[in-house]
From TrEMBL:
One of its GO terms (molecular function) is hydrolase activity. The keyword Hydrolase applies. Keywords: Hydrolase. Signal peptide: none annotated. The lineage of its organism: Eukaryota, Fungi, Dikarya, Ascomycota, Pezizomycotina. Pfam families: Abhydrolase_3. InterPro entries: AB_hydrolase_3 (IPR013094), AB_hydrolase_fold (IPR029058), GDXG_lipolytic_enzyme (IPR050300). This is Alpha/beta hydrolase fold-3 domain-containing protein. It comes from the Eukaryota. Residues 79-280 form the Alpha/beta hydrolase fold-3 domain.
Length: 311
């Protein structure tokens, strides 16, 4: 049997083989894009530090990179970020341009954290990692201002981010969540996720691999810890900023969450990007529409965070 799940060993083995093939297929193209972003990050003049954050499991640690500007005055506000992955692709560090730019433009700490991937570690493992990071963050009062904490997440990272923020609300006061092209409702089948003009949408069978790897049991996909869009509005941070792309089949669930929270009286800055697919910002090339819109998106996030984390 696979750990933490009710799937059979044969089902786990099938997913393991498919995910391994996916990881190998994207290795070269994603390396080129990530290398481009690493070079850009280095030019931003932001410092980085590696951390190994203790998890709830004895002897196991969670990798994190801390981004910070020249000023080392502490404690500072902190943004904790979770990268996209489809729950299965190891892409820690793929948001380095975002993290560096937020640190540079806001003067705050940005903690970019990893989490275990599926199917090797399905739900609730990745969520537990995120909760452990927020618990650790709450103890670092000499470094982080625990009254000014925000979270962010990209794609599947938004699922982990939002579910952890909701679960940790009694432990840590989280001022804002910034969700970039979020995946927040697994209760909707991949075939039902559509937009008028999709751009490079993943085939439904790929989405099923992602979903099955993270939560194999369909009955669990209505759990708000799996699909945080289904959580009660009062459980969300006071500010939830949502960015969507109109070529992304996940846009409808992002917009539905925005409408739900607005109706409940939450502050919901909304950024709708036109003519762009999911994950357009990773490795964007200078002079392209993706480059221009990435700058626009990250500046929007800077302004949201400045407003939410002001003294």
């Amino acid at each position: 049997m696979a750990p933490h799940t009710s799937m059979s060993f044969l089902a786990y083995l099938r997913l393991k083989i498919l995910v391994t093939c996916l990881r190998l297929l994207i290795k070269v193209p994603i390396y080129t894009r990530l290398r481009r972003d690493r070079l850009l990050t280095q030019s931003l003049g932001v410092h980085t530090q590696h951390f190994r954050i203790p998890s709830r499991d004895s002897g196991r640690f969670i990798d994190a990179h801390l981004y910070y500007p020249d000023s080392t005055t502490s404690p500072k506000p902190v943004l904790v970020n979770w990268h996209g992955s489809g729950f299965v692709i190891p892409l820690h560090g793929s948001n380095n341009v975002f993290c560096a730019q937020i640190a540079k433009e806001t003067g705050i700490f940005v903690l970019d954290v990893d989490y275990r991937k599926s199917p090797e570690t399905p739900f609730p493992g990745p969520l537990e990692d995120a909760e452990d990071v927020l618990r650790w963050t709450s103890t670092q009062t000499d470094r982080f201002d625990s009254s000014r904490v925000a979270v962010s997440g990209f794609s599947a990272g938004a699922t982990v981010c939002l579910a952890a923020a909701i679960a940790s609300r009694s432990l840590l006061s989280i001022s804002a969540a910034v969700l970039i092209y979020p995946f927040v409702d697994m209760s909707v089948a991949p075939e039902a996720k559509m937009v008028a003009k999709p751009i490079k949408p993943p085939p439904p069978y790929i989405a099923h691999i992602f979903n099955d790897s993270y939560v194999f049991d369909n009955a669990k996909r209505t759990d708000p810890r799996v699909s945080p869009a289904l959580a009660e509005p009062e459980h969300f941070p006071p500010t939830v900023a949502i960015a969507t792309c109109d070529g992304d089949i996940l846009e409808p669930e992002g917009l539905a969450l925005a409408a739900k929270l607005q109706d409940a009286g939450k502050k919901v800055p909304l950024k709708m990007l036109k003519g762009l697919p999911h994950s357009f910002d990773t490795g964007a090339e200078k002079g392209t529409l993706e480059w221009k819109k990435r700058e626009e998106l990250y500046i929007w996030a800077v302004q949201v965070l400045k407003g939410a984390l002001k003294p």
